[in-house]
Amino acid sequence: MDFIETVTLTAQCQYILAVIHHASRRVRILGTTAHPTHAWVTQVLRNLLMDLEDAGQPSTFRFLIRDRDAKYPAMMDEILQTVCIAPVLTGVQVPRKNAVMERWVRTLRAGPRPDPRLERGPPASCAVGLRAPPGSSHTRSSA
């Protein structure tokens, strides 16, 4: 679980709360807000647990890895323990402990990758100003 800070087109700072299921690599965007309060984080966590229960998946989650951000309330750990999910805190400045989430965040920040088929461009014989090799059937006529 991690907060991703982003800036919208209107220059407003938004915090996105996301969680990744490590086994399936499924990402759940839990919510976004300009001001993450303890009450908001607690409610989002309760919503996540209800969604997991509705899907019949709460028993598949045993740990929740998160950093030591002050945005997470102490009540969050108590809520997790009631459903037998153990909170695991990462060390200070140890992003490798939550590497799957950090990699996903880095992918988001990099933006969409262009289609590699478009990077190559048109074939050399179709490019403007290039001539086909002598003797080929693709010679350009000089008009």
From TrEMBL:
It comes from Streptacidiphilus jiangxiensis. Residues 111-143 are annotated as: Disordered. It comes from the Bacteria. This is Integrase core domain-containing protein. Transmembrane segments: none annotated. GO terms for molecular function: nucleic acid binding.
